[in-house]
Specification:
The protein is an all-alpha fold. It has helices at 5-19, 54-67, 82-90, 121-139, 150-162, 172-188, 200-205.
């Protein structure tokens, strides 16, 4: 009896597959994955600055408190941890432009093409903060931004936003846009990244956080959620205090 080619290939496949140990598992009463098998965000660690110098950190904290001023019931950007959030981001992949194409030629592109500069966020922030410090000291008798009165700080930030207050060696308007975006992001992001300390921003707007589901509340509009917000590491009163 002649052995057909299809039978031969099928038989060979069965032999090879028979040698491979079965890896199927029965999942019962547990999550179908191993702990730490993914790539979860690393919780920010308390401590000093990782990217900013002491002077840079003081300036960023002052900027954060003018972008998000403290109120009677809600802390400002500084006490909410926005500067810590930005410090950790600039010290990590975001600051290094990790995952983006950063090879020459570097040319000015269209707005929808995103940043085309050779310098990443970390380098841009460092240059802008140095230029801001020089400009403030020249204009206010040797005082840095963090030492100025609140009305002078507001005047400078508004000038940067309009493009009237020029920085030598940096794009002040672009710096202001980046600072507003990043500080706002730190204010509303999950506390695991260092900002939104004690979930103050979520409590302010009534956001319930990263809860498992909201099926009971899908059709209940304009009602305040009665439970406290939950972050990726739990509730605010379950987590240790950070910087």
């Amino acid at each position: 009896m002649r052995l057909r080619r299809r039978d031969l290939l099928a038989g060979t496949a069965l032999v090879l597959l028979g040698r491979i140990p079965a890896r199927a598992a029965i999942i019962e009463r547990r999550l179908p994955w191993s702990p730490n098998a993914g790539n979860p965000p690393e919780a920010v660690k308390p401590g000093g600055w990782l990217f900013f110098t002491a002077a840079e950190g003081r300036a960023i904290e002052a900027i954060a408190d003018r972008i998000i001023p403290p109120g009677p019931q809600t802390p400002g950007g500084k006490d909410a941890g926005c500067a810590v959030y930005l410090d950790r981001q600039l010290a990590g992949p975001y600051g290094r432009n990790e995952g983006l194409y950063v090879r020459p030629p570097f040319q000015s592109g269209a707005k929808n093409q995103g940043p085309q500069s050779e310098a990443g966020p970390a380098q841009q922030y460092r240059a802008a903060l140095a230029a801001l410090d020089r400009a403030c000291r020249a204009r206010f008798s040797g005082k840095g931004f963090g030492d100025l009165a609140d009305n002078d700080k507001d005047e400078i930030l508004k000038g940067l936003e309009r493009g009237d207050f020029k920085l030598d060696g940096a794009d002040g308007k672009a710096f202001m846009g980046d600072a507003v975006r990043d500080i706002q992001t730190g204010f509303f992001a999950d506390p695991i990244y260092g900002g939104n300390r004690d979930m103050v921003a979520w409590k302010m707007i009534g956001y319930p956080g990263a809860r498992y589901n909201y099926l009971d509340w899908v059709d209940r509009h304009n009602e305040r959620f009665p439970l406290p917000p939950v972050g990726m590491t739990g509730r605010a009163d379950w987590t240790p205090k950070s910087r």
